[in-house]
Design goal:
Blueprint: H1 3-21, H2 30-37, H3 43-48, H4 56-65, H5 72-83, E1 86-88, H6 89-92, H7 98-110, E2 113-118, H8 129-143, H9 149-159, E3 169-175, H10 186-199, E4 205-210, E5 224-227, E6 231-235, E7 239-243, H11 246-260, H12 266-279
Parallel strand pairs: 2-3, 3-4
Antiparallel strand pairs: 1-7, 2-5, 5-6, 6-7
Helix pairs in contact: 1-5, 4-5, 7-9, 8-9, 10-12
């Protein structure tokens, strides 16, 4: 967990403690607060010491219990401030995958120039419905989250409308192993590779593929998106990280530019895709 994130969570905990100790009706003990809402006895301590991230409902109840309901907006703003940078999958996927897809749909609508790097699967914005369906199913199993697969697929496919918006440009880099990862049946992957090949030539898409045989200047590490050179989204196993400080964004832009030097485009990219497709011929 980042230092900035933890410091912000600890600062929120300090504010929660202040509200509890200065309640208009008299100082409220942690045990009294926990008992009022049926919380585990350690929850109050963990929240106040920055060991646990509160939910919006936790904050609402806290403000009410301490006699300061008007403080809820302030507490929620603090929470949103640091959650906007590190968004845990556990919390984001509590109601399923569709909400996350809708969030990205909104982010895509606001940006015009996209730079992406992907190492292990086909970009969501280029996925077929069948391929996306298998991705969502696998992640729901991993994260133990509610299954709303069809709603999530529909939201992901709606995002692809942006590919045909002449005001937007997608500069996408893909590592060759993503073309071979059997996260779905071979027949589904073949159709997905056909779809991927069909995006080469779109005037809104510049698709580069880095072959396994290519010499690279830096290790092909975590996947990321850069929106309008102002915001980066990085996906890890536990969370999405949304980065907007200029120095960090610049680091990701330089990383993307360095990786781009190893990519092939146009007919050469088609050949890499076709090679991957041929390897699947005997597995269907």
């Amino acid at each position: 967990m980042s230092t900035d994130y933890q410091q912000a969570r600890e600062a929120l905990g300090v504010r929660l403690r202040e509200l509890r100790l200065s309640a208009p009706g008299g100082r409220l003990t942690g045990a009294e607060l926990a008992e009022r809402y049926g919380w585990n006895k350690s929850k109050v301590s963990r929240l106040e010491n920055g060991k646990q991230t509160p939910t919006p409902e936790d904050l609402r109840l806290w403000a009410e219990a301490t006699g300061r309901p008007e403080a809820f907006d302030e507490l929620l703003a603090r929470l949103r401030g640091f959650e906007s940078h590190i968004r845990s999958w556990r919390r984001q996927l509590a109601a399923g995958h569709r909400a996350v897809q809708d969030t990205h749909l909104g982010a895509h609508a606001e940006a015009t120039v996209f730079r992406g790097w992907e190492t292990s699967m086909i970009y969501g914005i280029l996925q077929t419905p069948d391929y996306a369906r298998h991705i969502f199913t696998r992640y729901a199993e991993l994260q133990r989250t509610p299954r709303d697969t069809e709603e999530a697929v529909r939201s992901r496919i709606r995002r692809q409308d942006a590919l045909y918006d002449s005001a937007k440009k997608f500069h996408l880099l893909l590592w060759e192993p993503a073309l071979h990862a059997l996260v779905c049946p071979p027949s589904v992957l073949v159709a997905q590779l056909d779809r991927l090949a069909g995006t080469i030539g779109l005037d809104t898409v510049e698709l580069g593929i880095i072959p396994l045989s290519a010499s690279v200047k830096i290790p092909p590490a975590s996947a990321f998106w850069v929106y309008d050179d102002r915001q980066v989204i990085v996906e890890n196993w536990h969370a999405e990280i949304w980065i907007d400080d200029a120095s960090s964004v610049d680091t990701y832009l330089r990383t993307w530019t360095t990786l781009r030097e190893s990519a092939v485009y146009g007919t050469d990219a088609q050949n890499v895709i076709n090679r991957a497709r041929r390897t699947l011929a005997g597995t269907r």
